[in-house]
Every structure is written in C-alpha cells, then in structure tokens.
Amino acid sequence: MNGLAVGCIYGLVALGFVLIYKATELVNFAQGDLLMLGAFIAYMAVVLWGLDYWVGLVIAVLVMAVFGALLDAVILRRVIGQPQFAVVMLTIGLGAMFRTFASVTWGSEIYTLPTPFSAKVTTLGGVTISHEYVSIIVGTMILCAVLYTFFTHTRLGVAMQAASQNQLAAYYMGIPVKLIFSLIWAISAGVAAVAGILLAPVSLIDINIGFIGLKAFAAAVLGGFGSIPGALTGGIIIGLIELYSGAWLPEGFKDVSAYVVLLLMLAVRPQGLFGALGRKKV
Amino acid sequence: MSEPILKVSNIETYYGPIMAIRGVSFEVAEGSIVTILGANGAGKTTVLKTVSGVMDPQKGTVVFQGREIQRMDPDKVMRLGMSHVPEGREVFPFLSVRENLRMGAYIRKDPDGVAQDLEAVFGYFPVLKERADQRAGSLSGGEQQMLSISRALMARPKMMLLDEPSLGLSPKLVKDIFDIIVRINRERGVTILLVEQNANMALNTADYGYVLEVGRIVMADTCARLREKEDIKEFYLGIKEEGARGTRRWKKKKTWR
Ligand SMILES: Nc1ncnc2c1ncn2[C@@H]1O[C@H](COP(=O)(O)OP(=O)(O)O)[C@@H](O)[C@H]1O
Ligand SMILES: [Mg+2]
Prior knowledge:
The complex is a heterodimer of chains A (282) and B (257). Chain A is built from eleven helices and two strands, in the order ααααββααααααα. Chain A has helices spanning 2-24, 31-48, 53-79, 84-106, 131-153, 155-165, 167-172, 177-199, 212-222, 228-248, 253-268; strands at 121-124, 127-130. The longest helix of chain A has 27 residues, at 53-79. Chain A is globular, with a radius of gyration of 19 Å. Chain A starts with a helix and ends in a 14-residue tail after the last helix. With 257 residues, chain B is of the alpha/beta class. Chain B has a domain at 6-88 and 157-235: P-loop containing nucleotide triphosphate hydrolases (Rossmann fold, 3-Layer(aba) Sandwich), CATH 3.40.50. In chain B, strands 6-7-8-3-9-10 form a six-stranded mixed sheet, with helices on both faces. Chain B has a four-stranded antiparallel sheet with strand order 2-1-4-5, with helices on one face. In chain B, strand 7 (159-163), helix 7 and strand 8 (191-196) form a beta-alpha-beta unit. In chain B, helix 3 (97-104) packs parallel to helix 6. The longest helix of chain B has 18 residues, at 171-188. The relative contact order of chain B is 0.17. The interface between A and B is medium-sized, with 21 and 27 residues. The site of adenosine-5'-diphosphate has 11 residues of chain B, from strand 2 and helix 1. The site of magnesium ion has 4 residues of chain B, from helix 1.
C-alpha cells in the first residue's frame, strides 16, 4: 500500500514531465520543484491563513497553474528550438531558483501540512489501513480520471493532443498552439501541486521535497517518456520496487533501486514499457 | 473583371540566407481552380507557406479578399477563410479520423453546420466514414490524403491551398482525388490553388496555370493553352517532339510524373 501510494506521486510528477515533453519536446527538470512550491502554497493557505484544507488545495492548484502558464509564456516559449542541453540547463536553473526562493521565503525548516487524512486509520478485518496512503491513491485515481475525460472528451483537450502530435497541422486548423502549450504547462504545474499536497501527510514539507522529481523522471523514462499511462505505471513500479528493496535489501539500496531498474530497462527495452512507435513532426 | 480573391505581388521568401522565392506574383480569381506547376525544389511549397502565413516574406504583399495577410500567423489566416492542405498530409496520427475532422472545424461555433459538413465529407470520401473511429496514423497514404483534404474542408473555407495532393498515390487514386477537388470547387464554390508536379492532372483540372522555376514564375496562361506549349509538353508532360530540342528555354534536368 505504501509503495503504491508513493508510486502514485512519482506517477503524477512523471505525468507532468510527459505532458510537457509531448507538446514541446522539452524536458522540464523543474517539475519536482513545482511540486515543492505547490506544497508550500497549500501550507501557507492552511496553516498561516487558517483556511480550510480543500480551499487551500484549490488555491495552491490555481496559483501553480497560473504560474506554470506564465513560466511558459514568459520564459520557455522563447527557448524552443535552442539546443536541447541549453534548455535542460535552463530548467535545472529554474528549479534551483525556486528552491532558493522557497528557502528565502519559508526558511529551511520542516513543516507539516495538517490534512483531513493525517494520522487516521481504519481497521478492516484485522488489516489496518492508513487514510494518508489511501488518500494518495484515491486522489491520483480521481485526478487521472478527470484528466483522461478532459483530454479525450472536450474540444480543448483533443486540441491539446492534436497540437502535441503535429504542431504545424494544428496551426493549419486555426488552433492557437502557443496558448495551448501554455495551458499544458498550467495543467502540468497544477498536477504537480496536487501531487505535493497529496504527499504532504506522509512526507514533511521542506525545500528539498522537489528532488522527488528525479525519481519521477526515472519513472517517466521507464514508462517510455511520451506515454501517459506509461508514466503512471512507471511511477507505481518504482514506488513498489523502492518499498521492497528497502525492506529486503541492505541499507542504501532503497534510494538507488529506482535508477538500477531504469538502467536495466534501458538496456533491455530502450523505448520504455509503453514506448510509442509514432513519429512526431516539427 | 472583379477583384481576385487572392493577389500575390512580388514576394521574396528566404530560408536563412537562401532565397527560395525570387519575386513571385500571381492571382487567383474567385471560384476558379488555379495551379502552380513546378519540378521538385522549384519553390511550390514555399509559395503556399508564404500565402498561408507559415512563413513570412521578406518583401512583397499577399492580399486575400482585399486584406494584406503577409505578416499574419497561420491560425489567423485560416480564420479568414483560407485552408491549407499541406504537403505530406500531416494528419494527427493518434487521433481518430472523426477527431481529425472535428479539429478541422476547431474554429467553428455552429455544431449543426459542423455535423452537416461531416456528413458531406463522408459523402465525398465514403472510406473515411468506414474508418471514422480508426487512428488516422493507421490509414493508407491515399486515405490520409482524403482525410487531410476533408479536414481542411471542415472549416468551410472560401479558398483551399493544396500542396501536391497526388504525391505518392496510384494513378487511379489521383484521378479520384482530382475528381473530388473539382466537385468541391463546383458544388461548394471553394476557390482552389493547387500546386503540383503532376502537370498532366493539374492542367486537365485547373482553369489557369503558372509555371514556377527555381523561385520564379516563368510562364502564365490558361491551362488549355499551357497544354499546347512545346516546353510544357516536353518538360512537364513528357511528350517529346522533333525540333523542340534546340529551342529549350530552361535548364535541362526536369522531373515529371
Ligand atoms: N527548411 C528549409 N531550409 C532550407 N532550404 C529549404 C528548406 N525547405 C526548402 N528549401 C529550399 O527551398 C527551395 C524550394 O523548396 P520547396 O518550396 O520545398 O520546393 P517544392 O515544394 O517546389 O518542391 C528548394 O531549393 C529547397 O532546397
Ligand atoms: Mg513541395
């Protein structure tokens, strides 16, 4: 259960990587730090301003969504077409900036976000189930269902898929591609915020919480970078492997197990679990 | 004569330092089919991209329905009623045929009209109706070309730009597609600008034609008269006649189908 829950978080962050990559062919290494910012904003709303947890969640998601869209419109849109390493360096640098901003604003202490699920358990037929972990799994399922419906059943969602598959053709259809890409950034940042808030009850909030993004990146690659179901599956696999290697293997293996699995995967099946065979144009 | 729906004057378009279009001018009369013929690399695609706004010309003007559009983004131009069917079809490979068609109507706000037009394009290309729920990427080349034309039609354009619709298709399929292009022009009043290497098909379909050579228009006439010209016969239609050899005006190497 715990491995599955942590895997869900990896999966959500990986989903953010994949959405942005599919649309703009840009790997956003600041994805984990967006999660961190989202968690801090929720913390501010709930603890400092005394708002309800759900209100705090909505505020954090909205603020991060707007922030994500601006990040694209103001900065990242301009670097499309630049060499890949320059763009990667830029997003890594942005991530470092976000951490600095967070440490200046909130200090480097460790915070707790009180949630309706914190420290609650239900005993079902002798098995103790913690609400914290269940909330992560259920929250992820709901979010994925919402996103799936949006991407397949709304005009805007299908247009996002279209713009990700063939940017030039999307222009020819009169789809405002730049705006659409900013909206995809908004969704990715919003999903990262949700992941940060879901994670909060089981992991304390500090400025380095965003390093979870590295494992999520491994999850995205494992799933075939470019596949949304792949990202989620990759996240869950890595969460489970970490749990079991933590339990059964010597100390220290837990944190590297994700990368070991990734290396094995890349050696055996480089296109990832759900590697798409499709091509992408322009 | 009334104002042409499209008037292109002296456009020059570059790829970086390379000048691909060297001062091209042409007109398209409303309701007509006009073709631009040219060998591979002549600059046909670049002309269409310049007209539809994907590329901006360094010099010159593009006037569509009385408006200068040479600096406009392609999505804006499209909203003015000009649909571009690009070279190589460019479908959305992971969307279904129906979703591709719906994306063609992205800018429209009249669901009833969209539904009507969906039936209309299924009428032109019944195979698309059979494959409506299949991924566009799984269609054959000919079917993708049909989809690409249909998708452009879903915007209910006043004018369509077609970039080598015959490319890579069997002669039978080419004939079918050109028949539909003529029907679209006659039945729906859509003005058509068609660029082709397949001079035979294009000259039999269009009303007026231009010949593009290395970024310049070298000839312009009605298609009926172009079909009779010796140079066209030799270089574009592949008909050799005695005596033509010495009077060659253009460079020798040509490709035609
Ligand atoms: N992306 C590009 N970069 C540089 N040169 C290009 C590019 N695309 C086309 N060209 C050049 O511009 C000229 C016209 O190309 P194009 O318009 O594609 O011709 P056509 O469609 O008639 O085959 C050619 O000489 C081609 O080499
Ligand atoms: Mg071309």
